[in-house]
Design goal:
735 residues; 20% strand; binds GDP-alpha-D-glucose; nine-stranded mixed beta sheet
Length: 735
């Protein structure tokens, strides 16, 4: 059975140990549940920090703890306490957490924390190395282990690695603030698949990969020098059926079995049956928007005083990272705000806010969900937010209203909730009123849709989808560079050509038949090339097509009355021997006016660059610019264009020191296919040097000859060094 290693900062358990007993309690919810089916399907291990320092226990207890962990397939990464503090409370929670949640003012850039972070990631790699086999699948989780994928990749190049980030990935403008941005991105790219909760986080990541490392990205593919990485989004779900089951059990529970909190809630409803409950549950974290929520609730009571005495906010804030200064400050702020609002609005028999600064058993949490008419979830930034999903899942009668911040990843999938901006007090107050007054039928209608979606895409589906995509990404990891066209292979090709009945050559021009010049107009064919092309196209049963990104006028000038066909502008125009120019596509050019201003802006800022306008594309040339500046601007431009062109059917193509924008579906591959239609060629050759030629290689029949000129990844079968080798090869065929 294939082995599966899950790696997270913390093992999903808590350990209580004294001399006699070792009790290991599995954590409920989230990750632990989601990964259970994976755990069952594969022979799996979970690697992480166990939450205790073994040195605090006598040796015999340590042995017992380790045996118990081992029996449960948990592998501990034991970390020295001082080092752990700098890695976890330091770099993870004072640098990565605030920065990735756009709290730049809280972000510390401390060299010693960074060193600790690197060291602990190395320690994880050491432990993994002791347990790993080459064909294992590794799934690494979250922001504490951003360097780990690359550390493992270096030690085990072939291993399958998935990485999932549970928090937002910020935009480039924020991420670039990090002094160690390069190392972090490189660390993540050690994985075969990098997963995020939403498309926005994935988009930001791709943008950082392009801008910081200069790698090409296309859709969800990232092309590194030696392998492909996939970045994709997998919105995490919850264990919907489990929440439903628990909520049903709560409803059927006899009074004597009820928890204290449930009894209190019952008492509350008994005292005034028309009172309504609003619930909010989160870790006490500055990202969760707790002060904003309290202020909005106060504003609601001030603005709509008819609700005084009619509804109560039950606010559970679970203690979290309380040794970090900003969490202590937040605690103080929340305590004061609750005190202020309760002091201002409370009556003898009514308190506006019930505030709990502690953790409850999950059963009580579900009871709170079930008993509350409204859930008020207002993070200022949140990767996903599972509480929103759990609240809806716990509503057996489908009654209840979810008010959800648009800043939570969950808002992307939960449109039927009342979506608010957590910085807009008035909007939140109005949403509370709307929720309290919403007709029951509307509540049920909205929740029906939400529940259906949560049930369909639950946490098991999330985990399975991720693993399936990881296995797929692993299969497509390899980048081919084409096989060297040796003399022996050349001889075989020559003899196949000689015995063929109808041969076809697709030849790219710049970089393939000739070298590059600073001014593209100066790269006209020399005598040797004319002779070679004449000779090849003059051979019996042989057709030649020059297929290029060049414009028609230039080719008309260079190849007038020649015995070969011409395809220009990457497949827009075709001119057959002795024929007229034929238009191969139907397309509008409306998009040009939108793009050209951006290109002009880049020309202004990049001396030496210029725009070429072709009939169906725009090209930004930067061959004559300062090399480094040109490369940097090209990365920026591509990034900007990828945002501008998402709604148009446009494609950004990167050639040799050019960026070309053209309509999708116009490419050399399409044009070559059209050319071949209805003809039976038994020997087809395609030769080209850049990215645009990859389309051509794709349509060359399997038994045909595709040749990439120059180094680099390619879909072509063979490769040649440069245009002189191409000429040499073609010459051999004609001799
Ligand atoms: C991170 C990301 C992302 C809360 N109080 C109690 C309690 N909880 C449980 C909830 C829920 C979980 O904790 C909280 O999950 P969230 O998703 O809301 O938030 P984070 O802890 O910040 O999680 C977040 C998540 O990772 C998953 O990828 O959604 O964006 O920040 O399950 O039920 N559970 C118990 N007692 C409590 O008092 N038992």
């Amino acid at each position: 059975m294939q082995r599966f290693l899950i790696v997270s900062n913390r093992l999903p358990i808590s350990i209580q140990a004294d001399n006699e007993n070792i009790i290991i309690t599995p954590s409920v919810g989230g990750l632990a549940t989601g990964l259970r089916p994976i755990h069952e399907k594969y022979d799996s291990r979970w690697i992480g920090w166990p939450g205790i320092n073994p040195e605090d226990y006598p040796e015999d207890v340590q042995v017992k703890i380790n045996t118990q962990l081992d029996n449960n397939n948990y592998i501990p990464v034991n970390i020295d306490t001082a080092l752990f503090d700098d890695y976890y409370y330091g770099f993870s929670n004072k640098t990565v957490w605030p920065l990735f949640h756009y709290f730049m003012q809280y972000t510390e850039y401390d060299e010693s924390h960074w060193e600790a972070y690197k060291k602990v990631n190395e320690q994880f790699a050491d432990v993994i190395s002791e347990h790993i086999n080459e064909d294992d699948i590794l799934w690494i989780h979250d922001y504490q282990l951003l360097l780990l994928p690359q550390l493992i990749r270096k030690r085990f190049p072939k291993i399958t690695i998935g990485f999932f980030l549970h928090i937002p990935f910020p935009s480039y403008e924020v991420f670039r603030l990090l002094p160690w941005r390069r190392e972090i991105i490189e660390g993540m790219l050690g994985a075969d698949l990098v997963g995020f909760h939403t498309y926005d986080y994935q988009r930001h990541f791709n943008s950082c990969v392009r801008r910081i490392l200069g790698h090409e990205t296309s859709f969800n593919q990232i092309k590194l020098n030696k392998r492909n990485v996939v970045a994709d989004n997998f919105p995490m779900g919850i264990d919907f059926d489990w929440f439903q089951k628990k909520a049903k059990e709560n409803l059927a529970m006899l009074n004597k079995d009820k928890t204290d909190i449930q009894k209190e809630i019952d008492k509350y409803f008994l005292m005034s049956p028309d009172r309504k409950l609003i619930v909010s549950i989160d870790r006490l974290d500055y990202t969760k928007g707790i002060p904003n929520r309290l202020e909005a609730f106060e504003y609601f009571l001030d603005t709509y005083p008819e609700y005084i005495g009619k509804c109560t906010l039950i606010m559970v804030a679970t203690p979290s990272r309380d040794s970090v200064e900003y969490y202590q400050l937040l605690k103080k702020e929340v305590d004061e705000l609750v005190g202020k609002i309760n002091g201002k609005h409370a009556t003898i028999n009514w308190t506006p806010i019930w505030y709990f600064y502690r953790s409850f058993p999950i059963e009580s949490v579900i009871e709170l969900y079930g008993a509350s008419e409204v859930a008020l979830i207002t993070p200022v930034r949140d990767g996903m937010n599972l509480v929103a999903k759990e609240y809806i899942a716990s509503k057996i009668d489908q009654k209840g209203v979810l008010i959800l911040s648009e800043m939570a990843g969950a808002a992307k999938e939960m449109n039927e909730a009342l979506i608010i901006n957590p910085n807009n007090k008035r909007e939140m107050a109005d949403a509370i009123k709307q929720a309290l007054e919403m007709p029951v039928e509307e509540q049920v209608q909205r929740n029906k849709f939400l529940q259906k979606r949560l049930k369909r895409y639950d946490v098991n589906k999330w985990a399975n989808n991720f693993v399936d995509s990881l296995i797929e990404a692993r299969k497509n990891r390899k980048i081919s560079f084409g096989i060297d066209l040796t003399e022996e292979i050349e001889n075989t090709i020559i003899s196949t050509y000689k015995s063929s009945k109808k041969a076809l050559f697709f030849l790219d021009y710049d970089g393939t038949l000739t070298g590059f010049k600073d001014d593209p107009q100066k790269a006209m064919p020399d005598k040797q090339l004319y002779d070679l092309l004449d000779k090849l196209s003059g051979k019996e049963n042989t057709e030649v097509v020059i297929i290029s990104g060049r414009d028609r006028d230039t080719f008309d000038k260079w190849f007038l009355n020649k015995n070969f066909h011409l395809i220009t502008e990457h497949g827009v125009w075709l001119k057959k021997i002795e024929g007229q120019w034929e238009f191969l596509i139907q397309n509008s050019n409306d998009w040009k006016s939108k793009i050209i201003h951006t290109l002009e802006y880049y020309v202004d800022r990049t001396p030496g660059s210029f725009i070429e306008e072709k009939n169906y594309s725009l090209v930004w040339h930067y061959r004559k610019t300062d090399l480094e500046l040109g490369q940097m601007r090209a990365i920026e431009l591509k990034d900007e264009l990828s945002d501008l062109t998402t709604n148009d059917d446009l494609e950004i193509m990167e050639g040799n020191k050019v960026i070309e924008i053209k309509s999708r579906g116009v490419n050399k591959g399409q044009a070559a296919l059209q050319f071949m239609q209805g003809n039976q060629y038994d020997f087809v050759v395609g030769i080209g040097d850049d990215w645009t030629d990859e389309y051509l290689f794709n349509v060359i029949p399997d038994e045909g000859i595709s040749i990439k000129v120059g180094t680099g990844k390619t879909g072509a079968r063979f490769h040649l060094a440069d245009h002189t080798e191409v000429r040499q090869f073609l010459k051999q065929l004609t001799d």
